[in-house]
Amino acid sequence: MENENSFHDLGRELGHEGVERLVGQAEEVCAHERRRIELTNESRVIGLRLELTLWADEDERLTERLRLATPPGDRRSHRVKVWLAGGVAAALTLAGFFLSVLAFDPFRLGWKSYLYCIGIAIVCPFCVGKCLEEWDRRKLLKGVATVACVAAIASLILLAIIRGKLLVQDLEGTPTAVVVADDSTDAPQTENHFYDETLPILQLTMALLAVAMELGAGLSFHNVQSLAGRSGEDSEKLARERMSVRHRIADLMSQVSHLSNEGAVFESRFWRNFYAAMLRHTARKALGKALIVVVCLAAGALGVRAEQSPLNLVIAIDLSASTASRGPDGKTDFEKNVNAVTRLLEHAPAGSQVTIIGITGNSFAEPDILLRAVVPPDSGYFGERLVAAHHQLLDAWKRRTAHLAPSAKQTDILGALLVAEQLLQKRLDTERRVLIIYSDMRQATEAVNLERLTASGLQFALGAVKRSGLQADLRGVDIEMLGVDAVGCNPREWNKLKQFWAAYFMAASANVRTLSVLREMPGSL
């Protein structure tokens, strides 16, 4: 009887050891195959990202050419507009010349007055047109046009007043120019004050007309430059070329995403098929026991995988004064970011190392480590240890942020990324590394400033990053940029900001998973 029981125990032990060995070997095969897929795809991903950068540059060049291209329509009408604007500018300049001649004529300067008049007639329209060209601000152009329009209308109104007075003078009758002395006639003679009343109005009218004419000539000169600056290219053809380039960019991004996720897709498919096969095999023998065994094996496998794939999580939160502004809901961006981090810590997985740093005005030279914690790898049989760890983590975070306030005058995101590079140094080959940034992502330091990013400023900013040594090495790190709001900038500037960070993290060999104005991660840790 004892021998029979010992044989049963031996069979049970052999069965358990066989299953554990099978699962362990399956995990090794899966890990090696995933690593092989990632190494195989790495060179292709790098090449596709470089090609993606080149196509992005081509898209910017086509956009600039499209801006300078002739608008859709008849090119003949475009030439007519150029000649019409040039004729108006020439006519107003000529009128300014003759008015200047009339003004200098009483002083009898001779031929010298004509030189002055030519300079006066040309310099004002030229300077106004040059100012509008250099500033290139639509508001300034509207302001100058408005001033010229108001001056012209006001001068016409004043001329209408003078004509009204002249009409009244004609109706009342012209006083006689001869006075006859007669003792029997003592009727008083009325005095004519027409010129005394209308002379100040005429002077103001001439001044307003001069302003309107010179500003109008400057606007016409600027209009001629704008119309003549058109490249003459077909805008519809350029639009089609840009559309094909953007289709190519979308295709490259799809390929990069597919190659980057191929290893994870393989691993998920492998374990799905593995457990499905085990479930089908054991179901044919004993369905009840098989379900219990599969659940236990799955829990054990997940525990082993959690130990083999620890999470190194770094969270960067913006502490600049710009996050203290309140939104329509009455909450500041800083409060929203703190609440988002709180919700994130509630779901920190077992075996993860969590580090929270602050983005200040000098993040690299004076790093601000707000919190560092390690979640135990053993979550407990019912997950009770993981729940207790979450409570302790949230309590520590609430104590740390109780008196925390955004006060940094500048925003040094690039310095914070250099600090994150050191915190995310890989300790194990199986370690998963994630960097989550809660900020509007507008770097604002003397070295690099992204507050008002333009097409030309994008390349300059990327060059400044390299020259200043601010490029971090985040190879293999998953990047989540959340709360990248668009307050104070238009969609074009927001897209330029997005292109800058995409190029930056591509050079850092990082995996950009999210760049969103929202603060909730699309997936889970």
Describe the SSE topology.
Elements: H1 2-68, H2 75-104, H3 111-135, H4 138-172, H5 194-228, H6 235-283, H7 287-308, E1 311-318, H8 333-345, E2 352-359, E3 368-374, H9 384-401, H10 413-423, E4 432-438, H11 455-467, E5 478-482, H12 491-507, E6 511-515
Parallel strand pairs: 1-2, 1-4, 4-5, 5-6
Antiparallel strand pairs: 2-3
Helix pairs in contact: 1-6, 2-3, 2-5, 3-5, 4-5, 6-7, 11-12
Structure write-up:
By secondary structure, the protein is of the alpha/beta class. Among the domains are: 75-173 and 196-230, no CATH class; 309-525, von Willebrand factor, type A domain (Rossmann fold), CATH 3.40.50. The protein has 12 helices and 6 strands. The chain has a 6-stranded mixed sheet with strand order 3-2-1-4-5-6, sandwiched between helices. Strand 4 (432-438), helix 11 (455-467) and strand 5 (478-482) form a beta-alpha-beta unit. Helix 2 (75-104) packs across helix 3 (111-135), helix 3 crosses helix 5 (194-228) and helix 6 crosses helix 7 (287-308). The longest helix has 67 residues, at 2-68. The model is unreliable at 303-308 (pLDDT under 50).
